[in-house]
């Protein structure tokens, strides 16, 4: 685990004294690209929700299953927005296991996520990261790298995994998803994971949101299941619909951890008809 002494992987200008969304998540996932400020916030949330690390890992496991599902449906190009700091089971690794020719464009606004993604993708012609804000979908669609790797006349796998809860109502996540949806051809898929204010432990969710927003500049906006469902407007949700992460098509050998099954992150996969 990193400490305040910065490794040579820290891009210039990064404020390591201030907790940051991407690095706190990296901490929960057991990654090494985080600092004391991130670890402090991560631990504060774990004090409120002792299963926070397991919930984050359940999100990543869902992402892996969803990418494998999409690859099985013939999706060979992916746009992963708010992709985060690379960790185990990155989208291009999973997609390219299924299809070595699969192409992936990642996008994030975090300099550490971007720098580390660039480093691991430096020798790849099939995957790249762009510095882009999900709140400006028009700019993402017009990006040269996106234009080079993604053919919008063929189905695309659009991934917005645990990122839209960092977009406020005023910034209208429903509209931004609609803009992206309208650029996708029929047969494309949308993968979303979104932390919610409902489920088995609403008071814990609210306490975690309050603690997080006190310390991290990018604010977390937990939403209701109805609001998350509206993000899929124009898509048909595939079975089992909108469910908590560990309930979405668990692998047969995967043990369903009962405590994680009824709160946390609602996930879904939709197909554009
Ligand atoms: N999607 C990855 C995953 O599921 O493992 C990372 C999730 S992490 C919780 C959220 C990521 O979204 C962070 O890397 C953060 O920098 C990024 N993010 C937050 N707001 C963003 C925005 N407006 N545009 C692009 N990325 C954003």
What secondary-structure arrangement, pairings included, does this model have?
Layout: H1 21-28, H2 36-48, H3 52-72, E1 77-81, H4 91-98, E2 103-108, H5 111-121, E3 127-131, H6 137-142, H7 144-149, E4 157-161, H8 173-183, E5 189-195, H9 202-215, H10 225-230, E6 236-237, E7 243-244, E8 265-271
Helix pairs in contact: 1-2, 2-9, 3-4
S-adenosylmethionine binds next to α1, α3 and β2.
Question: Into how many domains do the coordinates divide?
Answer: 1
> Helical element count?
10
Shape: globular
Task: Identify the quaternary structure here.
Answer: single chain
Residue fraction in strands: 5-15%
Sheet having the most strands = 8 strands, mixed
Separation of the first and last Cα atoms: 45 Å
Arithmetic mean pLDDT: 94
Please report the first level of CATH classification, the CATH class.
Answer: Alpha Beta
Order of helices and strands: HHHEHEHEHHEHEHHEEE
Q: What would the CATH topology be?
A: Rossmann fold
Number of strands: 8
Ligand inventory reads: S-adenosylmethionine
Structural class: alpha/beta
What integer value in Å does the Rg equal?
Answer: 18 Å
The CATH architecture comes to 3-Layer(aba) Sandwich
**Residue ranges: pLDDT <50 for 5 or more in a row?**
1-5
Let me know the CATH homologous superfamily: Vaccinia Virus protein VP39
The helicity comes to: 25-40%
